[in-house]
Amino acid sequence: MVVKELDEKIVLGDRLKADNLIWISAKAPVFKTYGVFYDEGEKRYLRVKSEVIKDFDGVFKTLNANTAGGRIRFSTNSPYIALFARQENNIQLNMMTLCAQSGFDIYKEDKYVGTYLPKTNAKNGFCDIVKTDGKMGEYTINFPLFDNVCELYIGLKGESEVLPVSPYKNEGKPVVFYGSSITEGAAASRPGNCYTAIFSRKTGLDYINLGFASKCKGEAEIANYIKGLDMSAFVYCFDHNAKDDEELRRRHYDFYKLVRVTNKDLPIIIVSAPDNPDCLQYNERKEVVFDTYKKAKNNGDNVYFIDGAEFYGEYAYDATIDGVHPNDLGFFMIEKKIEETLSKIKTEI
Questions:
Q1: Of 170, 244, 248, 339, which has the maximum CB count within 10 A?
Q2: Which residues contact 212 (CB under 8 A, 6 or more apart)?
Q3: What is the pLDDT of residues 100-116, one digit of tens each?
């Protein structure tokens, strides 16, 4: 389809100067959204339906509107791809770049093309533009990791074409990741360097990121939501967010059982917290996590265990920004181990 045929005369002010720039709503059918959905009631993108967390606190509801794992995918031969976004601009996190927290980045197939850099406190939205090679190809724009997105428009050259993308290998059956701030993406330098995004690029698989910083505690409401998703695999790691090992023990196996009850053959990967060798306080928590794995294995379940202390190997002291949250090196190493584990699974993913 020629871009100018989609022109709805959307005016976003004198924000960018580009040859025959036409703005198209990201909700247009030619764009495919993954990992998030637009909630007409809240007027923003969400990861979990509002009614699921209606009794949760306001912090969790804000985290639910953080768009980690959100993607827009489409094909085009436009010589540039512009973006306009209006966000709520959460308070700048001390361990995150503004680029990762509130920005977008774009890939052509599995190659990085550019970053849409946000403006600090841009309450009325920001826009940016990335030049391309002008050849037809499939593009993925990754949403911010720790900010809300209320409006989103894609800008393309009017004479160019825009087409749907080919489906993921597991289209309609994503790999679901549930976890702490690390799963959500703290502290990648930009959205595409979160381990879940790396995983998707390397495997060609769809995914949903249900990382909730500091609020991922294995609640039954979330387990019941997850168990109803049509998944190809489930990966979870939330021991960092437990108050102590006793709280973790009360919830970890029960969370597993709730997800498993309607997913008898689903591959489930149980992960202990990614730690460096000095994080000895997490040894007891790791035992709790491993105990869930042993119980599940003894039941004959399709289950796998990853020891988070083994993620970083010889780079244990270089792979985080603060001893806990991975940097880009750490995220690439986490992804490698998870991808290796999933490759062993005998299922059609």
A1: 248
A2: 60, 63, 64, 179, 180, 181, 184
A3: 999 999 999 999 999 99
Whether residue 306 is contained in a domain is answered as yes
- Contacts of 206 by beta carbon, 8 Å cutoff, 6+ apart: 34, 168, 170, 171, 172, 173, 174, 175, 200
CB atoms within 10 A of CB 123: 10
Q: Which three-class secondary structure state does DSSP give residue 289?
A: helix
Looking at the structure, tell me whether residues 96 and 140 fall in a common domain: yes
Tell me the average pLDDT across 258-274: 96
**In whole numbers, what is the pLDDT of the chain averaged over residues?**
94
- pTM value is 0.97
Final residue of a structural domain among 98, 128, 163: 163
Kindly state whether residues 207 and 262 are assigned to the same domain.
yes
Q: Is 243 part of any domain?
A: yes
Using CA atoms, how far apart are residues 188 and 118, in angstroms rounded to an integer?
16
Q: Sheet holding 80-86: strands in order across?
A: 21-25, 151-157, 80-86, 126-131
Tell me, yes or no, whether 131 and 198 share the same domain.
Answer: no
Find the helix packing angle between 245-260 and 220-227, rounded to 10°. 30
Write down which residue in 101, 136, 163 finishes a domain.
Answer: 163
Which structural domain range is residue 251 located in?
A: 175-343
Q: Could you tell me if 306 and 187 lie in one domain?
A: yes
Question: Per residue in 79-96, pLDDT tens?
Answer: 999 999 999 876 788 989
